[in-house]
């Protein structure tokens, strides 16, 4: 059992590492695209703020670890977590390779749900808890689109008559702060998902009996995500930062501000969100407010398809792995 737990922790850290270079790229995509920050400075800033954010909250971790299923009632709970992490890591790497900004959050939630079903059947899933998580994942990008549209519309009303060069120069400076805030908010939500899964495994393995997240789990997950941030992500930056709309500093700042507000708001309610969904939707919202025809809706459609298939695909992979592991 101890060997399995150690393997789960290592895989959890690998997942957070892949989450770092997969999802955190979204947090700095707009500031890199507008040249508000150099790639090196943006990565260093995002890695640092992610680590700080990951150490700050644990509410989302408790939601992930306790609302999808009861770890005390799942047979072979440690095997379930192991297979969930392998499936989520595989999907992260697959979508990263093709530059698709799919959701690490969806991959992990889908993987854990699929693994639970593979081990104990559909009845083992806490339907109410799972539904609340899905509702948060669905409503958060809608809120981001609407809020992004509103903020950009307000910015255009206030700054539209000023010199575009001067406006862009001011907002390029402000983007340094908004990118830092967005990376911090990403850490407060995304890193907690892995913390929750590891805690789920600790309970299933009999090493603890509550959803309290140990300090060593928080620290290791935060460091893994910070290191992952510094190691890659440029494929995703290219898609999010340039292929959805042509980003200028004013709508880059509006997108960052929108994402930070939405992610932090859901974190306060202990609900997981997909930073990929939120950031991409915020960019679409700000782009639509500026010029709807300027949004590359075909790229947005590809991203939407990736969003829709991530949970079922990672779930199927995890369920299959669990069935094989328990033969």
Automatic annotation (TrEMBL):
<keyword id="KW-1133">Transmembrane helix</keyword>
<dbReference type="InterPro" id="IPR001204">
    <property type="entry name" value="Phos_transporter"/>
</dbReference>
<feature type="transmembrane region" description="Helical">
    <location>
        <begin position="77"/>
        <end position="99"/>
    </location>
</feature>
<keyword id="KW-0472">Membrane</keyword>
<feature type="transmembrane region" description="Helical">
    <location>
        <begin position="43"/>
        <end position="65"/>
    </location>
</feature>
<feature type="transmembrane region" description="Helical">
    <location>
        <begin position="215"/>
        <end position="237"/>
    </location>
</feature>
<keyword id="KW-0813">Transport</keyword>
<feature type="transmembrane region" description="Helical">
    <location>
        <begin position="249"/>
        <end position="269"/>
    </location>
</feature>
<feature type="transmembrane region" description="Helical">
    <location>
        <begin position="137"/>
        <end position="159"/>
    </location>
</feature>
<feature type="transmembrane region" description="Helical">
    <location>
        <begin position="304"/>
        <end position="326"/>
    </location>
</feature>
<protein>
    <submittedName>
        <fullName>Phosphate transporter</fullName>
    </submittedName>
</protein>
<dbReference type="GO" id="GO:0005315">
    <property type="term" value="F:phosphate transmembrane transporter activity"/>
</dbReference>
<feature type="transmembrane region" description="Helical">
    <location>
        <begin position="105"/>
        <end position="125"/>
    </location>
</feature>
<dbReference type="GO" id="GO:0035435">
    <property type="term" value="P:phosphate ion transmembrane transport"/>
</dbReference>
<keyword id="KW-0812">Transmembrane</keyword>
<dbReference type="GO" id="GO:0016020">
    <property type="term" value="C:membrane"/>
</dbReference>
<dbReference type="Pfam" id="PF01384">
    <property type="entry name" value="PHO4"/>
</dbReference>
């Amino acid at each position: 059992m101890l060997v399995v737990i150690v393997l789960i922790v290592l895989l959890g850290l690998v997942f957070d590492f892949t989450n770092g270079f997969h999802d955190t790229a979204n947090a700095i995509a707009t500031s890199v695209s507008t040249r508000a920050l150099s790639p090196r400075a943006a990565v260093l800033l995002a890695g640092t703020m992610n680590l700080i954010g990951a150490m700050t909250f644990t509410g989302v971790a408790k939601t992930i670890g306790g609302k999808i299923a009861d770890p005390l009632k799942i047979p072979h709970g440690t095997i379930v977590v192991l297979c969930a992490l392998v499936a989520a890591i595989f999907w992260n790497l697959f979508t990263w390779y093709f530059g698709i900004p799919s959701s690490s959050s969806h991959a992990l939630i889908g993987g854990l749900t699929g693994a639970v079903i593979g081990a104990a059947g559909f009845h083992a899933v806490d339907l109410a808890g799972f539904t609340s998580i899905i509702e948060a994942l669905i409503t958060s990008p809608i809120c981001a689109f609407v809020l992004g549209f509103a903020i950009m519309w307000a910015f255009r009303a206030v700054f539209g008559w000023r010199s575009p060069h001067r406006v862009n120069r001011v907002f390029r400076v402000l983007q340094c702060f908004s990118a830092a805030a967005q990376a911090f908010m990403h850490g407060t939500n995304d890193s907690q998902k892995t913390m929750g899964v590891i805690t789920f495994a600790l309970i299933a393995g009999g090493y603890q009996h509550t959803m309290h997240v140990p300090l060593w789990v928080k620290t290791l997950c935060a460091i893994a995500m910070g290191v992952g941030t510094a190691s890659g992500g440029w494929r995703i930056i290219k898609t999010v930062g340039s292929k959805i709309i042509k980003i200028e500093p004013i709508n880059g700042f509006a997108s960052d501000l929108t994402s930070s507000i939405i992610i932090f708001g859901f974190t306060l309610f202990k609900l997981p969100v997909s930073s990929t969904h939120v950031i991409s939707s915020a960019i679409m919202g700000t782009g639509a407010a500026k010029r709807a025809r300027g949004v590359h809706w075909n790229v947005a459609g590809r991203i939407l398809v990736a969003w829709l298939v991530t949970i079922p695909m990672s779930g199927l992979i995890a369920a299959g792995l669990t069935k094989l592991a328990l033969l």
